[in-house]
Amino acid sequence: MSLPVFLGEFTELPRPEEIIRILGSEAKHISVRRLKEGSEILLANGADKVVRAQLMHVDPREVHVRVVAAEERPRPRPHVTVVQALPKSDRAELAVDLMTEAGVDEIIPWAAVNCVARWQGTAKVTKSRAKWQSAAREAAKQARRAWIPPVADLHSSADIEQLIRETTSAGGAAAVLHEEETAPFVDFAARAANSDKVLFIVGPEGGVSPGELEAFRDAGASSVVLGPTVLRSALAGAAALCALGPLTKRWGGAPTRGQ
């Protein structure tokens, strides 16, 4: 079984034998897990750096670990951003959890025309975004990730149009996942294998509106069908990431046609 992952506050890679203090919620989490002194854990700083460490002192308020080894893990390429239309409240954190475990690099919440859920008011926006970021943080630990995907500010459809233009003009690839499309996902993945950045746009339960779809296509996005079944909004982003993995270098294999 792989070692459990916790978050540590360090910016530079620590040296072997160095002692690191863990405070607050992470110390309490280690204590709750009933991990004993002498056990090994992984500490990730959430920004690519990972430490293998041995527990020296365990207390709910403060944990001390001794560094055994440290490394910086490269991020997979292409870099994948998922634009996620706001799902219903009971599925929002599930969507973030699944995308994070599937390897998403950045998450952008989107207030689409057909969204049932709405983030209205500054307090609501701040609270909802914080919940998404917390879900990404916990899912990253569960998935043994070294990089916690950031959750961007809430975007409008006009913001997404601009993002598509910026992505494609820089040589990236953008796709709207659309259940009524006939263009296969695998053809898009073959083009994306040559890109440094990929942008997936996931619509709400009510679907991407015709006006939004036309605007996104005009901005440079393709529209593709992910598979033979219609997926819930909360699952589509993770499914696209998993489908893209073996078709590009993200999962360490040889890319498909085009490279």
What's this model, at a glance?
With 259 residues, the protein is α/β, with parallel strands linked by helices. Helix 2 packs parallel to helix 3 and helix 4 runs parallel beside helix 6.
Walk me through the topology.
Blueprint: E1 5-7, E2 19-23, H1 24-32, E3 40-44, E4 49-57, E5 62-72, E6 79-85, H2 89-102, E7 106-110, H3 122-142, H4 157-169, E8 173-177, H5 185-192, E9 197-202, H6 210-219, E10 222-224, H7 233-244
Parallel strand pairs: 1-3, 6-7, 6-9, 8-9, 8-10
Antiparallel strand pairs: 2-5, 3-4, 4-5
Helix pairs in contact: 2-3, 2-7, 4-6
Radius of gyration: 20 Å
Low-confidence stretches: 254-259
**Class based on secondary structure composition and strand pairing:** alpha/beta
Order of helices and strands: EEHEEEEHEHHEHEHEH
Helix content: 25-40%
Overall 3D shape: elongated
For the terminal residues, how far apart are their CA atoms? 35 Å
What about the largest sheet?
A: 5 strands, mixed
Multimer state: single chain
Task: Count helical runs.
Answer: 7
> Mean of residue pLDDT?
93
Q: Within the largest sheet, what's the order of strands?
A: 1-3-4-5-2
Q: Tell me what portion of residues adopts beta-strand conformation.
A: 15-25%
